Amino acid sequence: MTFDWSQLITWRHLLNVIDILVVWFFIYKLISLLKGTKAVQLLKGMAVIVVIKMVSFFLKLETIDWIMDLIISWGVLATIIVFQPEIRRGLEHLGRGSLFGRTKRQVNPGEQLIKALDKSVQYMAKRRIGALISIQMETGLDEYIETGIPLDADISGELLINIFIPNTPLHDGAVIIKDYKIAAAAGYLPLSESSLIPKELGTRHRAAIGLSEVTDALTIVVSEETGGVSVTRNSELLRDLTQEDFIRYLEKELIVEEETIKKNPVQEFIEGLRKDGSK
């Protein structure tokens, strides 16, 4: 008895395969957009709720099952409310044509960026000029950038110093750096409510720690009282860094060795058609 491959390879089966691939592609894009954001932790919480629901269903735990049904029923609305910033950024991401464009990872102008940060921070530390500088890493900071004054300016030590000079319009708040540019100044950051923060630390340190609790941003703080230089990231606070330790930390966290540029399959297909058409 021979197997008839024509029964297996049909248009219906081919369309089913395409259907599955498209769904997986969009799931992959969704995970890529959410990777490194606060939404990942919320998704883990949702997964726990689903597991509890399944266990309560199979074990006939009627009260727990009923409660989980209520939570899941309202989950769609809650998800829209909780994920509102991520949904907005995702739609903007699609609106910019990234689905058909290149995926490009910018090269950090390592030495230039670190030199500007070091020059400004050491200048302000010696003169006890308070400063708060946050650098976007993987987690988007758009919701905090929108609270400040947009600049979109090239980074220089002189500009950073000038922003934080006391009694100027932009000195009160955070400078936020995105894609190696000063995206905004006078931005508002979330204050940490942790009881473990030493009492002698002021609002700038509390804001830096607060941002590090909800994002992976790297934040630099210059104390107005002591001139000490501190750095926060991922809920970790490093206080009173020397200039050598400060530069070493920035080099470890900010310098990217090489540029990686890749095209998604859709972009490669479109460019292939263009090349064929131009021949």
Structural summary, described in words:
There is one protein chain. The chain has 279 residues and is an alpha+beta fold. Helix content is 53%, strand content 16%. It is built from 12 helices and 9 strands. It has helices at residues 5-8, 11-34, 39-58, 62-73, 75-82, 84-95, 110-126, 142-145, 157-164, 203-214, 243-254, 265-278, and strands spanning 102-105, 131-135, 149-154, 174-178, 181-187, 218-222, 229-233, 236-238, 260-263. Strands 3-5-4-2-6-7-8 form a 7-stranded mixed sheet, with helices on both faces. Helix 3 runs antiparallel to helix 4, helix 7 packs parallel to helix 9 and helix 7 (110-126) runs antiparallel to helix 11. It is elongated. The model is unreliable at 98-108 and 258-262 (pLDDT under 50).
The helix count comes to 12
Global Rg: 25 Å
Q: What overall form do the CA principal axes indicate? A: elongated
Beginning-to-end CA distance, first to last residue:
49 Å
> What is the helix/strand order?
HHHHHHEHEHEHEEHEEEHEH
Mean pLDDT: 80
Beta-strand portion reads: 15-25%
Largest sheet at a glance?
Answer: 7 strands, mixed
- Low-confidence segments, ≥5 residues, pLDDT <50? 98-108, 258-262
Secondary-structure content class: alpha+beta
Find the count of extended strands (DSSP E, 2+ residues): 9
| Helix content range | 40-55%
